[in-house]
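ok so dumb question maybe but i'm new to this and my supervisor (M.) told me to 'just get the structure for Protein-glutamate methylesterase/protein-glutamine glutaminase' and walked off. so i did the thing. is this what she meant?? sequence i used:
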Amino acid sequence: MKIKVLIVDDSALIRSVMSEIIGSQPDMEVVGVAPDPIVARELIKQTNPDVLTLDVEMPRMDGLDFLEKLMRLRPMPVVMVSSLTERGSEITMRALELGAVDFVTKPKLSIQSGMREYAEMIADKIRIASKVRIRPRTIQHAEAKQSSESVLPMLRNPLTSSEKLIIIGASTGGTEAIKSFLMQMPSDCPGILITQHMPEGFTRSFAKRLNGLCKIAVSEAVGGERVLPGHAYIAPGHSHLLLARSGANYVTKLDDGEPVNRHRPSVDVLFRSAAFSAGKNAVGVILTGMGKDGAQGMLEMKSAGAYNFAQDESSCVVFGMPREAIAIGATHEVASLNELPAKVLQYLATQGGRALRV
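this is what came out, is it supposed to look like this??
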């Protein structure tokens, strides 16, 4: 059975190129194209697609308004097609919050040839989207209220050390999972390093949005900054993020080398650097995502003495990366996304006084 895809975009060129890319895949078929959400509503009823590709900015009805209504009334996998601009990235972050599975970016120049270069990535994202579990959305309270009410206390151990670190990796579905995790972190939690598979330009908007929602300070890593308690550093979309030592301090390091596991930034690169530089002072957390990036790096963390957590299948958008890490014995505990922050803090409170130097 082929994956049925409905394309919604106000650009005739994008509709044509996307149709060509999807139609050339042996396991997919385009069941319709729509220039705006009004036409799309009728085509959804007629074609019952498995996946919708949706432009972010469109006439007649904004893509976000349409997405919000769609996820309430007829939840289905949606892949956003976004402009690589500051406004486009901010709107895309909001789309992921509303329930979009993932997004692809329109190239700034030579859209037709640029989109064709993305063909494999676009097809992969649609395949992943077709397999995810979509949950109906309910009316939510303001995020600021959610943040203030859900922050956990740091479970105090008089010997807890600032040398402890939390190292996080995620991919598909990870923006919301990371947001959920960080919004529960208290302002005095250990320093946090994060690799989320995301293109350049979007990581800055992601960090900025989280910084406004969380009690901790969240920023895009620039390389060379000291890793401080109460701060989270997100890998920029153009480089791998690594943990390094500078004397008695931990610092961030960026590397624009080749992709690892087809990704830059790569979770494996971050986890391996944490194994080398932090050892038993690190706590690893692997969240929702497709593929196996992070599994081997997490195993190296475990071998170096780190304690590792994985998100469970029922709370993952895609149970790929956590499954791989669990399968090779890289994790110590598996828990739902709602439980993970408390479990991590509990572990840190009980282990904080042990062997702080590596």
